[in-house]
Amino acid sequence: MSSKQVNFYNRVKMLRVERGLSRQQLAELINVHPQTIGYIERQQFNPTIELALNLSKALGVGLDAMFSAEPFELVDEAALRPSAKTNK
């Protein structure tokens, strides 16, 4: 892990970018204003547990992973899907 601490706020941005989502797109998924996403990513807003849960669902990770102090590997979702070769 880099010297920069990865926390909830960093993970929101990291996961959003990994999934190719803009702030606008993520905001629409969870029904908040895009500025809210920016505030969260810049650590200027502490989300409620409901908002944190909605973020974790939209980003496809468990709430525990969002708040974990442990680093985690980002996984390419395409790598998890069975290929046509394995379905034969």
Can you walk through the features of this model?
By secondary structure, this protein is mainly α. It has a domain at 8-64: Orthogonal Bundle (434 Repressor (Amino-terminal Domain)), CATH 1.10.260. 53% of the residues lie in helices and 0% in strands. The chain contains six helices and no strands. It has helices at residues 8-18, 23-30, 34-41, 49-59, 63-67, 77-80. The longest helix has 11 residues, at 8-18. The radius of gyration is 14 Å and the shape is globular. The N and C termini lie far apart (39 Å). InterPro entries: Cro/C1-type_HTH (IPR001387), Lambda_DNA-bd_dom_sf (IPR010982). GO terms for molecular function: DNA binding. Keywords: DNA-binding. Pfam families: HTH_3.
The run of helices and strands is: HHHHHH
Poorly predicted ranges: 83-88
Number of helices: 6
Can you summarize the main beta sheet? none
Distance between the termini: 39 Å
The general outline is: globular
Strand content: under 5%
Structural class: mainly alpha
Q: What's the CATH C level of the domain at 8-64?
A: Mainly Alpha
CATH superfamily of the domain at 8-64: lambda repressor-like DNA-binding domains
CATH level-3 fold name of the domain at 8-64: 434 Repressor (Amino-terminal Domain)
Rg, please?
Answer: 14 Å
Number of beta-strand segments: 0
CATH architect. name of the domain at 8-64: Orthogonal Bundle
What is the arithmetic mean of pLDDT?
Answer: 80
Percentage of residues assigned to helices = 40-55%
